[in-house]
Amino acid sequence: MCHYCGCRQIPLIRDYIAEHELALGLGVRALEEAGRGAVTEAQATVAEMRAELQAHWQGEEEGVFALMRGEELYREHIDPLVAEHRELDALLGRLDMASADDRARLRHEVDELRVHISKEEDGLFPVTLVEFNGPEWDAAIAAWERAHPGRTLSYD
Question: For residue 62, which of 34, 36, 113, 143 is within the disulfide window of CB 3.0 to 4.6 Å?
Fold first, then answer.
């Protein structure tokens, strides 16, 4: 995990990283719940994970990704990430945590989500430091705020 460029000190990026950690934690929790037979709780946790990711993805896609998509170099990295968002959203929407096959799928997808997150945190997010200036940061933050009504970025 990269810690040298300083992007993790920017409130927007720090909150995106916290959302990544929350989503992963929810996925692990759902698997643990299902593993101990708490299938109803596991199903609810998957729904919570999906809702968190939907807001997260909206903020990313309408903010940081939209701003970076103007450059062809970044677009070739962003488009596959957006496709991965759609694929995971569809899967989370149809998972049945009572199914051993679906639990295995979720386990696999949690591992894949870690890889996906690494592409964002170690690839795209550091680029924002050199590509964004005031107006871009303002637009990216506004997109996050639209995706997270009633919440504010953590500036501490």
Answer: 143
